[in-house]
Amino acid sequence: MAHRGAPQKRSMTGRKKPASSWQVSELMLYLKQNAGKPGLSSQTVFLANPMEKIQIDQIFQNYLWPGVVRALAGSSIRVSGSGEDFPGSSLSDKRANHTTRSLTLVLADEERPFIPGKSSSWFCRGKIECSLQDYMISFEFFLHLPMDFEIGKIIELLADPLFSGNPPNLSVEPYSDDGHIMVVSFFEGSGAGWGLRSYEKAGQELEQKVIKNLEVIEAMNQLGRDYTSEKWFRELQRALREAYQAY
Q1: Phi first, then psi: what are they for 159, rounded to 5°?
Q2: Which sequence spans correspond to the domains of the chain?
């Protein structure tokens, strides 16, 4: 005899009553937590599957974050605000078709701490986005150069054929009350579906991306000691190509 599932409840009109879902319970929880909030009746509500969030957070903790820790071992560079501890509280929901969690990583140098009013020679930020279907890892790097830095070298970076398709950008930003700096910014990102790549491979990919950015940081730190150094400009160019080439 064929197995029959539990009968669905019917409303007073005789129609089938829809089964309860996480969307309904999450919406009711949101409305309860925000009751009395001005404008609630016209607000757009974003919901994420709480059970999937737990699974995704475990992928972060067990496979992705260890890649960051391995890459930073023995370096003075750390993830700002977290050290080696898994920054679970920093995970956030991303608006996407599927429940997706996001983690932003800002790399900072313990030996060169940020000082208000003084710009570092670089800024590096990464973002990891993960769902039960796929993941994406992206990084952006900002070179902070003095206004008298050789413009020919900046043009050389901007016109580098290895960055063609995803070229760096150049901007001028305030540095102090009476000064400015030139900022050259780079961006890259890659990912895959979990059917194509394992959690372990994704963690290894993240590790390699962090290592490549560490090489850019080291070259930029050295160049910052002498912006006329041809050696360290070429080393910076090489490291940027490795980390941010478009192909």
Answers
A1: -95, 5
A2: 50-244
What does the pLDDT look like over 23-72, one tens digit per residue? 999 999 989 999 988 988 898 988 999 999 999 999 999 999 999 999 99
Greatest alpha-carbon span in the chain: 85
**3-state SS class at 12:** coil
CA end-to-end span of the chain: 59
CA geometry: angle at 147 spanning 144 and 152, to 5°? 90
Q: Are the C-beta atoms of residues 157 and 237 closer than 8 Å to each other?
A: yes
Q: DSSP characters for the chain?
A: ----PPPPPB-TTSPBPPPP-HHHHHHHHHHHHTTT-TTGGG-------HHHHHHHHHHIIIIIHHHHHHHHTT-SEEETTTTTS--GGG-EEE-SSS-EEEEEEEEEETTS--BTTB--SEEEEEEEEEESSEEEEEEEEEEEEETTS-HHHHHHHHT-GGGTTS--EEEEEEEETTEEEEEEEEEEEEEEETTTS-HHHHHHHHHHHHHHHHHHHHHHHHHHH-TT-HHHHHHHHHHHHHHH---
pTM (predicted TM-score): 0.86
Q: In terms of DSSP bridges, do strands 169-176 and 179-193 run parallel, antiparallel, or are they unpaired?
A: antiparallel
For residues 247 and 244, what is the distance between their CA atoms, to the nearest angstrom? 9
Q: Do 22 and 48 meet the contact criterion of CB atoms below 8 Å apart?
A: no
